[in-house]
Amino acid sequence: MQETWRWFGPDDPVSLENVLQAGASGVVTALHHVPAGEVWPLEDLLARRRMIEAAGLVWSVAESIPVHSDIKARTGDFARQIENYKQSIRNVAAAGVGTVCYNFMPVLDWTRTSLDYELPNAARALSFDMAEFAAYDVFILRREGAENDYDAEIVARARKRFEGLDEAARVVLENTIIAGLPGGEGSYGRDEFRAAIARFGALGEAGLRANLLAFLEEVIPVAEAAGVRLCIHPDDPPFSLFGLPRVVSTAADARVILDAQPSPANGLTLCAGSFGARGDNDLIAMVKAFGPRIHFVHLRNVSRGDDGSFYEAEHLGGDTDMTGLVGALLAEEKQRRAAGRSDASIPMRPDHGHLIGDERDADGVNPGYSFAGRLKGLAELRGVIHALNALDGAAPRD
Ligand code: DNO
Q: Does pTM top 0.70 for this prediction?
């Protein structure tokens, strides 16, 4: 596997030198300064590529070219937005980047209820607590009909949580959920957020899926012609939030998307943490089912509660059999090599990491994207890859 590292660009507190020291060879980044919906300029792409290569690394994956809300809702300026998206794909290809990650989550990209969930070893993790989430939805946002979207037992726990939060804690919870996380696309105030939800409210799952497939029908031929592999990122978390539809949450969802455009340009980002937040997603089976179309992998583990809650566990801890998953991915790579595929080495990044050591109480660390936590995850994953390759008689480091 190709070891990569997500880097948020020149403003990232983790430097490219640190990325190299972590042992990664590839960088995953985006032009975060370009507003969603605008074309990524070729000169900016080339400048970014030069910066990465000057540090002794390669630009492996563009994550993400954001899909504008107009495209997801298929209203407003969506036709122009799709043309812009096609041009960004062509420009990315011209800059020599062959893999592009994107998502189709309406309104909110990834979200959590806590950024400093304390673990028994005093490290801090990101977590999603269903009762806290419902406390926000039902009692702070007061979304119409919200209480009907949760079990009565969760609403009861949510009420207790809400009553236990003072005003400052309510603000923290709101900001954690709707103000946006690194690499995410939406940052909202409360009124704006209500309006954004209302825009998607009537669409439903079938409507959102139809809009995704209509988008793919237009962009996949362009990506294929440009030699770019698009790979959709799953919903995080992989279920409906705020009554909004989500259509990239399960193996069945992925199947529909991949079958709609059976081109190698239409692929999947296997985010183990996102898919793994549902007990009914069998990640190893997904690698077996979708292997040739997996263009990018996020390796992260979660510990699941029984109500949809989860926290981000150690990379080799949690509920996902990470060693089994890596083994399945290595088997897929082997098949690609045998088939002579040029993309036999799949880019993977250690996704998220705990706050440990000096970073634990430091300011300015991007949530989930600490240096030490990801370094630890990458090193552990590298050990697994190394050991599995050695057992298989393959080169110790691919
Ligand atoms: C969270 C990430 C997301 C993801 C985008 C993909 O850490 O995995 O930011 O990159 O949703 O489009």
A: yes
